[in-house]
Structure formats: structure tokens, C-alpha cells
Amino acid sequence: MSRGSGREPRVVFGFHAVLARLRADPASVIEVFVDEARNDARARDLAAAAERSGVRLLRVPTKRLDGFYGGARHQGVVARIEPQSGAATLDEVLERLAEPALLLVLDGVTDPHNLGACLRVANAAGVHAVIAPKDRAAGVSAIVSKVASGAAELTPYFMVTNLARTLDELKERNIWAVGADASAKDELYQADLPRAIAWVLGAEGAGMRRLTRERCDTLVRIPMRGAVESLNVSVAAGVVLYESLRRRALPAG
Which terminus, N or C, of the chain has the lesser number of Cβ atoms within 10 Å? Predict the structure, then answer.
């Protein structure tokens, strides 16, 4: 299978994202910058976490923090980090599993806020990896990390060269590709869902590309009872992933 995208040294910002990185992988945090004007409880807690982890913390003017992002909402805290170590390929992730795979495939999610929200819900649901095409997806950035509230640092995210081929390779491992599509005949709650599953979602509005849809073993739709016609992709991801979790918790048979 295709290799995951290499993560270049970068920065993360916001209290949730920086604290999550300190807790999950403190050795990867080079240094933390905190607004010198902040001395509230959150800033003190962050300083204590950095000290416990042996990470250098610098008090700097707000303007220096603004310079990282051109004025983005950093909440007064920024961290410089090294690339996260971990599985280099999707194959490695799958080979290590001791339970049926639960994957999330995103086709056409280019907005970093949507990607961050998807990574957050994927991590909450225990997804083993999130997969996206290199040519039509957002990469992990500082904005993604902030929206994901730390999940971007903990959830394997692979950007593959050929998404259709990757779906074929997943099916060779007996992992079903199940697409969430508004035009599907079967409703989510009545559909037969496998335990080893890769949920495939497209961006809100555009949906999945034709080749991606054709690679799905089956399609299901989330029932819409109100006036709106679609859900944000991260909300849809939460609905389908937690339906898989609910079914896994049911007694066999």
C-alpha cells in the first residue's frame, strides 16, 4: 500500500493541542511559547506540564506569537514540534491490529477545520487510521491540530497516491468499504455492516468521486428527518463510526 505522508517539523497552537502533545509525546516538543501577558490558571497549568516534561518554555510578546500565523487565534500558546514517530505505512497499522479494523476514508475533504473535526471524532471512536487522497485533501497543519484538540497528534493519517487502489487493497484484507451516500437505497440502521470496515465519506455537497463510489462494497444513507439535506462531514463521520461501535458492543448473533 502507499506510504503515509511524511510530517515536516511544524508548530501547533492552542491550549488543547499543545497540552495533548505534551502528554502524548513530550520528547517531540522542542519548545513552548506562552504570551508573557498570560498568568491565568490555564497558562500556569501549561507551564507546569512543560516543566514536568522537561520542555523549555519561553514567555514572549503577543506579537511574536501572532507572527507564527499572521494573527491566527493561538490563545497565547504555540509549540514547535518534531515530526511524530509511529507506523510509516498503512500496512504496518493494519498488521498490528488485534481487533477488526475500523477505518475512516475521506474523499475530497479539503477544509482544514473539517479535517480537524474528523480527526477528533475518529480518535474518540477509536479509529485505527484515517485515509485521504494526496490530490484532494487537506494535510495536517497547525489549524487542523487546533481544531482536532490533540487528536491530530494521536490518530494515524495517511495521504495515499491512489485512493481507489487503496480501497481495493483494503478489500483484499477482508475490510469492507462502506460509503455514506445520500442517494443510497439502504438506511444506515437497517443495513448489514461488517465488523472490519472502512467508512468512506465525501465532502459535504460534492460527495465522493465516481471511482471512489464504485469501489465501495455497499452504500448506506444516514436518515434525514428534518428540512436539511446533508450533514457536515465530521458529523456524518461521528454518526456512522458510532453505529459501528454500537454494533460491536452487541452480543454475537
Answer: C
Closest CA to 130 of 121, 140, 119: 119
- Amino acid residing at 172: E
Query: In this predicted structure, what is the pLDDT of residue 4?
Result: 44
Domain layout of the chain by residue ranges:
10-81, 90-249
Under 8 Å between Cβ of 138 and 110: yes
Does residue 145 contact residue 29 with C-beta atoms inside 8 Å?
no
> What is the CATH number assigned to the segment(s) 10-81?
3.30.1330.30
Q: What is the pTM of this model?
A: 0.73
Contacts of 198 (CB under 8 A, 6+ apart): 101, 103, 104, 105, 131, 167, 170, 175, 176, 177, 178
Q: How far apart are CA 235 and CA 189, in angstroms?
A: 16
Whole-number Cα distances in Å, 88 to 52, 91, 96: 29, 8, 12
- Model pLDDT for residues 180-233, shown as the tens digit of each residue: 999 899 999 999 999 999 999 998 777 899 999 999 999 999 999 888 878 999
